[in-house]
């Protein structure tokens, strides 16, 4: 999300972010991938569906629950998104709220993101900004049913963004749909890129 938001923030200053995530089971690990496989087969074979990794059935279901709940009702994953976004964007003034959802997808996290900016910015301006942003791929042609999909992002390094449109409910709002391979961009690629920076600056 931040890969997409930071270039916009640099131009129009983001005041508030409302994000709902749709996160794949691979974010939990191999056991969760296997659980989704087993549950899907069990349903088709009309056998008992067992839930061991997640508190509820994940196959053909959505769980609005990632990590443990805190006393304020947010989960640890949601609080992490809020705190880390402010830290990475280097702006504690940004208002952020998040709802994280586990979905029956093997690889690829998707996010519905609504932002409110201090400066008015149009969807076309957002597309131009993101088209120049490193590591971002704009896929945004609704007339041809072209928008980011988890199955298309799987195995790729880029962060994909589409459904870029003006929020009709507020004066300075933009809606976005963001998708990325959580294993590559969220973990492996990030580790490699951080290591490259460390080597480049002689930190080791």
Structural features, described:
The two termini are 29 Å apart. With 204 residues, the chain is α/β, with parallel strands linked by helices. The protein has a 6-stranded mixed sheet. The protein has one domain: Dihydrodipicolinate Reductase, domain 2. The longest helix has 17 residues. Strand 4, helix 5 and strand 5 form a beta-alpha-beta unit.
Number of domains: 1
Shape: globular
State the distance separating the first and last CA atoms: 29 Å
Give me the side-by-side strand order of the main sheet: 2-1-3-6-5-4
Largest sheet: 6 strands, mixed
Count of runs of 4 or more consecutive helical residues: 6
Let me know the CATH homologous superfamily.
Answer: Dihydrodipicolinate Reductase, domain 2
Number of strands: 6
Structural class from helices and strands? alpha/beta
Helix residue percentage: 25-40%
Query: For this structure, what is the CATH class?
Result: Alpha Beta
Order of helices and strands: HEHHEEHEHEEH
Question: What percentage of amino acids are in beta strands?
Answer: 15-25%
Give me the CATH fold name: Dihydrodipicolinate Reductase, domain 2
Q: What's the rounded overall pLDDT mean? A: 92
């Amino acid at each position: 999300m931040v890969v997409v938001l930071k270039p916009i923030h640099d131009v129009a200053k983001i005041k508030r972010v409302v994000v709902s995530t749709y996160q794949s089971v691979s974010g939990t690990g191999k056991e969760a991938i296997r659980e989704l496989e087993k549950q899907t087969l069990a349903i088709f074979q009309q056998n008992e569906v067992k839930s061991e990794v997640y508190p509820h059935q994940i196959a053909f279901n959505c769980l609005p629950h990632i990590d443990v709940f805190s006393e304020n009702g947010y989960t640890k994953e949601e609080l992490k998104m809020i705190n880390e976004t402010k830290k990475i964007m280097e702006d504690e003034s940004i208002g952020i709220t998040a709802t994280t959802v586990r979905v029956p997808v093997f690889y690829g996290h998707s996010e519905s993101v609504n932002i409110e900016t201090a400066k008015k910015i149009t969807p076309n301006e957002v597309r131009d900004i993101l088209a120049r942003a490193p590591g971002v791929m704009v896929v945004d042609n609704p007339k041809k049913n072209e928008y980011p999909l988890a199955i298309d992002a799987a195995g790729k390094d880029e962060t994909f963004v589409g459904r870029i449109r003006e929020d009709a409910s507020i004066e300075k709002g933009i809606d976005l749909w963001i998708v990325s391979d959580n294993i590559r961009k969220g973990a492996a690629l990030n580790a490699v890129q951080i290591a490259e920076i460390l080597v480049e600056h002689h930190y080791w």
